[in-house]
Amino acid sequence: MVLLIEAFFLVLAVMGAVVITRAFMLSRINVAQARLAQVLEEGLLRKEEANQRFQQAQAEIAQLHAQLHESVRGQAAYQAKAEALEQSSEEKLKLLGEARETLMQSFQALSAEVFQANNQAFLTLAEQTLGQFQAKTQGDWQKRAQTLTEVAVPLQERLQLL
Predict the structure, then answer these.
(1) Residue 101 lies in a domain
(2) What is the tens place of the pLDDT at every residue in 6-38?
(3) Is residue 156 part of a domain?
């Protein structure tokens, strides 16, 4: 029976050692679980932060896309305005060229008319002046001829008497 009691104490000692070992292991498992829970919580927090950053990045990308599309639309509008202005400028230059040509032709025609009128007026004035000069000169010649006749007739009469 002593053997049985010794065996019983031995079993109790082994069971105590198993319980202590098990308690130690449970303690280590609890520490490991706590550490694992902490790591898991940190991982979840990092995942949540990463998700937030990802969502912010997606929102920023969407905003940048919207700005890009707006810029493209604005650029297209400015391009259309620039093309319209260029076309309008070309049309205005063409009209100015045509107006210049028309004005030049009108000026040439008008200057030819003015030149013709001036020439005609000059010729008329020259004819009048020449007519007056000829009339005056002819009157002078007639007076001189009469004076010569008046002088020559008595000389001729005297010469005939001689």
Answers:
(1) yes
(2) 888 778 888 888 888 888 898 999 999 999 999
(3) no
Domain that holds residue 73: 1-130
Would you say residue 9 lies in a domain?
A: yes
CA distances from 153 to 99, 143, 158, 162 (A): 78, 15, 9, 14
Q: How far apart are CA 94 and CA 102, in angstroms?
A: 12
The string of pLDDT tens digits covering residues 34-61 is: 999 999 999 999 999 999 999 999 999 9
d(CA 31, CA 23): 12
What distance in Å separates the CA atoms of residue 30 and residue 18, rounded to the nearest whole number? 17
pTM over the 0.70 mark:
no
Domains of the chain: total: 1
Residue at 91 is within a domain: yes
